[in-house]
Amino acid sequence: MQLFKKRLSTAAALVLVVVGILIGTQIQNVFSSDNIYEQLEKFKDVLSLADKYYVDNVDTQKLVDAAIKGMLGQLDPHSVYIPAKELKQINEDFRGSFDGIGIEYDVVKDTLLVVSPIAGGPSQLVGIQAGDKIVAIDGKSAIGITREEVMKKLRGPKGTKVTVTVVRAGVDKPLNFEIIRDKIPLYSVTTAFMVNKDVGYIYLNRFAETTNKEIENALSKLKSEGMKELILDLRDNPGGLLNEAVGVASEFIPAGKTIVYTKGRIPEADETLVSNGGNYTKLPLIILVDGGTASAAEIVSGATQDLDRGLIVGETTFGKGLVQRQFILNDGSAVRITIARYYTPSGRLIQRPYGKESNWKNYFLGAEKIDSSEKSGSNLTHTLESDSGRPVFRTVSGRKVYGGGGITPDYIVKMADIPSFIYQFQIKSVFIQYVDSHFSQSQDELRKKYITSERFNDEYQVNSNDLNNLFNQATKLGITVKRAEYEKNIKYVSTLLKAQIARNIWGNNGWYRVILGVDNQFQKALTLFPEAERIAGLNVPAQH
């Protein structure tokens, strides 16, 4: 899911389009009012009185933290207070790396299961494999470990050592691995591969410090493999850094074109960010979006739509159009305060109405309500929006688009309903457990037989015995599902099982290559490149 010098950015305080969907808050004039010092004295008096007279001992830090949260709670849903302990984790997410051993994991039946070692990380280098069960850490049992404890015990400063004891299918005795912790990348690009000989696919999960560079590398790789068209998947991308969003958009938008501009109460908050231009400004482009697409992801989508650069497909985005600035406080905590609103090139404010604090729960659920009212179909002239009261804007070609409620796609495709029992399968890790039990010992054999995830996807078939055994396993785990309903959705179940097998062998590329086969939004997008080219003016005959 790109470095631009910005007037508001400093080493200590980045201007963020915050990872969408944190609880938080719109700055008002209280900070510039004449009686601010009077109000501070009032607060100090109340704190002192509570500390002196309250019936029990008072934790003043806890009271101050609560007061800050309450104060910001009067502003907007995206101005937030971040305690020092949480700030470290959040900063790691934005930096795009942390120190640790480098595994994707799950806790299944009180056992720490390695879902996949991170490519190039220290765990992979010493031989940790998908399906390994970590039963001890530094000689102490890891059975019954929680996810929080996993992070505490396996993360640590670069260069430090940790020994993990692993139980592996097909190996009689436990294996001990001494792992030297290192910088572990947190990738923004979850996967990038060629869907067919012409179409490339990139799934971008967020906008962090390394995102633009990752996109550049992914695009270069796909181009070398013959990419002539691209599907950029921004579904469930909550956003991130504003400058990274501008960098990603610049890959596809010609130099000098406005990508986004911001306006705030103070002059320093106003700026216009334009494209630097990239190597893919003539590449046919489709962007997939949904209700989880927010903030920075909406900047990329909104600019693409306003400039008629590509086709937006899927469901209406979240609608988060506020810009926050982060301020570090003296105890290592921080506040993020909304300093501006951002606008797409046509002048659209993407921010949805959020009302008062009491309605913010509804605000965060609002994207789902918008999506539920949408009707699938071509929406190139945006006649499918049900709310005609929203302000109208125009793309560069004159197409009507609406502001004040996220980005509504040019082609609305509702995600197909997922059988309810599938969620229970996922919650109880049914697929992960089954693949771990039945395929751990055959991974090398499958890898040698099919060689690539593409060939595996084309040729491998899940057999009926595995599907019957999977149903029986789910029943033993207490999941109630009628056999008739299971059989009705057998294709979907089979695809998820196949995808999990592929993931254990080929990682995210294996998973997505299989799962996109039952993704109706993606499948529809594959058919829409002629329209995407037409909108972008890429199929117009050259003039002589």
Q: What does this molecule look like?
A:
This protein has 544 residues and is α+β, with helices and mostly antiparallel strands. It is built from 18 helices and 24 strands. A hairpin with a 2-residue loop joins strand 4 (103-108) and strand 5 (111-117). Helix 6 runs parallel beside helix 7 (242-250) and helix 7 (242-250) packs parallel to helix 8. The protein starts with 14 loop residues before the first strand and ends in an 8-residue tail after the last helix.
At the first level of CATH, the class of the largest domain is: Alpha Beta
Shape: globular
CATH superfamily of the largest domain: 2-enoyl-CoA Hydratase, Chain A, domain 1
CATH architecture of the largest domain: Alpha-Beta Complex
User: Main sheet?
Assistant: 7 strands, antiparallel
Brief overview:
The chain is an alpha+beta fold and 544 residues long.
Question: What key phrases describe this protein's structure?
Answer:
single chain, 544 residues, alpha+beta, Pdz3 Domain, 2-enoyl-CoA Hydratase, Chain A, domain 1, 7-stranded antiparallel sheet, 7-stranded mixed sheet, globular, disordered C terminus
